[in-house]
Amino acid sequence: MVKKVAILTNGGDAPGLNAVIRAIVKTAETNGVECYGFIEGYKGLLKNEYIRLDSRTNASGLLHRGGTIIGTSNNTNVFNYKVEKENGEVEYQDLSDKCVQNLKEDGFDCLFTLGGDATQKSSRDFSLKGINCIGVPKTIDNDVAATETTFGYNTAVSVATEAIDRLHTTAESHHRVMVLEVMGRYAGWIALESAIAGGADIALIPEIPYDINKVIEKIEERKRDGKNFTILVTSEGAKPKDGDIVVKKVLDDGKGLDNIRLGGIGDKLANDIEKLTGCPARNTVLGYVQRGGTPTSFDRVLSTQYGAKAMELALEGIFNVLVTYKGGEYGYATLEEVVGENKEVGAASGNTAESNIRKITMDNRLIKTARDIGICLGD
Ligand code: F6P
């Protein structure tokens, strides 16, 4: 019998986190279950910092609010925790047993982990230590395995689409090539869907390394058709076929974390295009605007369904799973399935050959549609 549950939100924030929290709390209350929230993701779990959540006080008025009321952390791997000693030396420690102890001592029957692939990897690792975990798939990049849509993604696409609409009018007035750099480290969902929604001419995604000559051909072809402007959307993780992703900063946040900050491909593309075509080109980086603020109605409903379903699973005693949305149905997949071949406890998630993040496959209908309507994908 589940009587007391905890939620944590971990990784980069995404619109809809609060809506999921609200749905879990409300469903919990409907069923007589007490709900708590750990502060700043796995960091709060380690420090045993949590607050009571209830719909009469803090878990109210949340549906439209971006961010997360319980905070998040995207540089905490408690299985391989970076500890800086007094002498300045850095040591990595497995502090996961402390987290397990915190959960057990305070009598939590289930831990809801709201996050992306790294968060769900730790969730799987905790489930191997006997903790009842239920994951909810978050990330604006839409790259969590085993589900078709993560919450936050639809809002990011909407913000990117609005940006494309705005770039269109200024591009047309000045006869410029406008580049829009959107998020998407290893998966190009935001770039591809917003390019289709916004009527962009070129979309560059991590899954298809691009040939700059194909990009130039498209711009020239448009010019021949009397279109003196072009809109190009690129994922931050897009790369030329003979080059690598553009890294803005190498971080040292700890082992088992994705220690690179991406950014710069938009500038590179605008420079290359200007040099090779003589057309004026400008770059806009959408950045954190696509991650902040109020969720779309789609994300509010998705988040609410995910949250309610997660609590329902807990009440049914189904643990160590991720709530999923596939073919219009809410269900679940095992956390093992989400983790894929990245089995080692405490190991990195995300950009490893073994990790199971959901990239766009070439048989995806969006790829076919983009090609059908003449969007250049750089190949
Ligand atoms: O994972 C989502 C994401 O939006 C990525 O696309 C992006 O690279 C990353 O977060 C940046 O987040 P932060 O700067 O918070 O680490």
> How helical, in percent, are the residues?
25-40%
Strand order of the largest sheet: 3-2-1-6-7-14-15
- The oligomerization state is single chain
Q: What are the distinct ligands in this entry? A: 6-O-phosphono-beta-D-fructofuranose
CATH architecture of the largest domain: 3-Layer(aba) Sandwich
Give the tally of β-strands: 15
Element-by-element helix/strand order? EHEHEEEHEHEHEHEHEEEHEHEEHH
Q: Determine the structural class based on helices, strands and strand pairing.
A: alpha/beta
Give the number of helices: 11
Largest sheet: 7 strands, mixed
Radius of gyration, in Å, reads 22 Å
Strand content: 15-25%
The top level CATH class name of the largest domain: Alpha Beta
The CATH topology of the largest domain is given as Rossmann fold
Number of domains: 2
Identify low-pLDDT runs.
none
* N→C terminal distance: 55 Å
Look at the structure and give the mean pLDDT: 95
- Tertiary shape: globular
Structure, explained:
There is one protein chain. It is globular, with a radius of gyration of 22 Å. The chain is built from 11 helices and 15 strands. The chain is an alpha/beta fold and 379 residues long. A hairpin with a 5-residue loop joins strand 4 (81-84) and strand 5. Bound molecules: 6-O-phosphono-beta-D-fructofuranose. Residues 12, 74, 116, 139-141, 183-185, 236, 261-262, 291 line the site of 6-O-phosphono-beta-D-fructofuranose (F6P).
